[in-house]
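Board work, copied verbatim: Pantoate kinase
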Amino acid sequence: MSRERATAFVPGHVTAFFSAHSAERPAATGSRGAGLTLTDGVTVRVSATGTSRGDGSVGAREIDGGPGTIGAVEDALAALGAAGGADAAGGGDAAGSADAPGETDGVPVDVAVESDLPIGAGFGVSGAAALGAALAANDALDRCRSENELVRIAHEAEVGRGTGLGDVVAQARGGVPIRVEPGAPGIGELDGIPAAARVEYVTFGELSTEAVLGGDTAALTAAGEDALDRLRADPRLPTLLDAAREFAREADLLVPEVAEAVDAVDAAGGEAAMAMLGRTAFALGTGLSDAGYDPEACRVDAAGARLVE
Ligand SMILES: Nc1ncnc2c1ncn2[C@@H]1O[C@H](COP(=O)(O)OP(=O)(O)O)[C@@H](O)[C@H]1O
Ligand SMILES: CC(C)(COP(=O)(O)O)[C@@H](O)C(=O)O
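↓ predict structure ↓
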């Protein structure tokens, strides 16, 4: 018996540094690297609409109360036999996807995404939304998939859209994940820094993940591999932040507003770095407040992605 509606929470994830690894299969594509999962995250509600199959409707789509779609969410839903749209990315016109071949016979679902975090600013919101949609759709439609299978579905959807490489596996784990080997569960490998912390962040705007991942990633990948070696030799939070700062400089990804904030935190005696890939600075403890910024504050998420009542 299907529960017909379900809600999932998925933590945000700020990547401190990463290297990009592409493979033929999306499940084997991913990143190595490390970052922090956050108690600020994404809540996804999925409900079966009750609309009969085959009428072309995919159901309603909302992001923070307004119309909107995220491509990785649509692909994750389609993989679970919910009506999702290959053409639904990037706009508010979810209904336009109804003509996508092979997908009109999925079960129509209403999907509402609510994010504590801005989209496109380096918090892995697209990956979180895809994983939340997979967890909630599996429950609402009684698809009987395991956690690893749902993480793989969301990972493949995110990688396929070019909006992320390692957020989904990190968000599934929670804590401070180290992505030792790239890819979905069963292929990739995770470790973590055993640490709890308050985290502050300020966002100055978006940075297109698709554009960076679609360009030449050789320099950032070399810098990311160096940073990972360093962190694995000394898996502690201050080393994570220091390796992140060096990565941002070496990979030439640092943007001026973030550089200024990171320097200000350093001058005030704190630890900060840039969130990949966004115009966002994050700091441990009260680093940004102490430097005179008015940041958002949360904590490292201890639990990882989960269904909620
Ligand atoms: N208001 C919005 N701003 C930015 N992206 C949006 C918005 N609504 C939907 N999207 C979609 O969400 C995805 C954002 O992906 P990405 O840039 O990787 O962000 P994040 O870092 O939050 O994961 C893109 O696929 C984009 O088309
Ligand atoms: C850095 C990024 C490739 C993208 O992160 P975001 O812009 O937050 O989707 C991430 O997925 C990673 O592999 O570490």
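Residues 63, 68, 70-71, 89-90, 119-120, 122-127, 161, 163-164, 209, 278 surround adenosine-5'-diphosphate (ligand 1) (CB under 6 Å).
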